Amino acid sequence: MRTPMKHFKFAPFVLACAMLAATPLATHATSAVDPQAQRGGTLQIAVLGLDTSDPHRHAGSIAVQQVYVETLTSIADDGRVQPFLAESYDVSEDGKQYVFHLREGVKFHNGREMNASDVKANFERVSQKVTGGWLSGAMKLIRSVEAPDAKTVVIKLDKPYAPFLNLISELWIVAPESPGWDDQITQPIGTGPFMFGRWQPDVQLSAPRFDEYWQTGLPYLEEIVFDLRDSRDNSLGLRAGDLHIGSVGNDKIDTLKKAGFDVQTLKDTAWYFLSFNNRNPSELMSNPLVREAIASAIDKNAYMNFVAGSAGMPSNQPMRPGTYYWDEAIEADDKFAQPNLDRARELLKQAGVNPADHTLKIVSWQRDYAQVASQMVRALGFKIDHQALDDIGAQKLLGQYQWDLAPFNSGPRADVYLRYARFLSDGPSPMLWGGIQDKELDARIASAVSSPNSDQARANYLDAWRHMIDKQYTVGIGHAANAIAVSPEVRGYQTGYTWSQNRVDGGVARTWLAR
Hints:
Layout: H1 4-7, H2 12-16, E1 42-46, E2 73-75, E3 81-83, E4 86-91, E5 97-102, H3 116-129, H4 136-140, E6 142-149, E7 152-157, H5 164-167, E8 199-200, E9 204-208, E10 223-227, H6 234-240, E11 245-248, H7 253-258, E12 262-265, E13 270-276, H8 288-297, H9 300-308, E14 313-314, H10 328-332, H11 341-350, E15 359-365, H12 368-378, E16 383-389, H13 391-398, E17 405-410, H14 417-420, H15 439-449, H16 454-471, E18 474-480, E19 483-486, E20 490-491, E21 502-503, E22 506-507, E23 512-513
Parallel strand pairs: 1-10, 1-11, 15-16
Antiparallel strand pairs: 2-3, 4-5, 5-7, 6-7, 8-9, 9-10, 11-19, 12-19, 13-17, 13-18, 14-18, 20-23, 21-22
């Protein structure tokens, strides 16, 4: 078996970049089967929704589709990049060429073996047919994708691009014969441990076991059923026995633990923020004094305590405190670290605004923390029109840019760039951050991505964030790890670094039910 260490050529550029900070380790080409595992059964799970049947067009809902489509690389539990459908990869000395060596015996769900031409076709489809997505920046830099033989893919870039290996952990490989390939894929044919079964949008997805999965002996389960209803209280389903695994709020954790549930958290955190409408702001919300007043009304400590209790981390930055891309000086300079309603009211007075004369439209998901944000803003005297919707409904309304404020959170990401990509003029799901259109910000983020070393990348990302603060595009509130409750009969399940339910070193392929 090919050993990844033997093939990975460390370039000075790559070693210097935190995004490629670790040597790929040996992966689970043939998984060690748990001798105690019981086969069969249907796992009922509710974590995130599924916004599309086309894996290349998702808007952030990655937890579900990763069980039926897989990628060349994977983000391991410790946040490092590991080979996945690729058994190993080489990176050239100048950081502009990547050679992927594909695994033997990987089959699509229609029984056909995956080859290099399939991988090439997926890269070309994302480059040519998907605009403004997560991978748009990386795709623009690809000079060529070649398949010199059935198990080798060569990708050449115009210039070094540090996040590349991390980003393609979200470029899913789908069989080109999947229905809708030329437009909108309706029935994705992937390589995952489970198959895309019957999908009822916003209701349910059934994913039956794939018997010819490339990791020998996996999966153990016969089927997974995802509950996609965004508004349900998963703790009720867990306690009633309708769910085996479900994401839960902080306020449910103690009760579930007392009832015998194992409560785990993702290895990385979600970022909580309040965005202004930056693409089509009203005359009121175009006033910097009004934006500053609203930011002054947000009690970050109380907000994060509501979200996660003592585990909540108030912060004005998109990367969690204590990590490499967070900055202590920027945190110390946060003039909104503590709420100041008196100052907020004085700012409104200076702006000539009587809040009682204005109704602010707030759009959010159906989450309790959004109500907290609404109440904090309401304390200034504004009338509030709060529309709390499911994921698809909220994104649709946000995209119309007929609103004022949007309290949201962004889940764990495989790379720092995936936080900043959302701020780009052509970034993915830009409506969550008010549809920023700022060429100067775009240039600063581009400088961070193309930096020759990690220290320079950090400096450039922080420079971009200072620009965000100066422009008052969004209010950073804090960080908290998402919690997932697991019922006592579930075995082998562990959360990962992100929401991924199938990854190189864990997930539902290794999960089984004790009966």
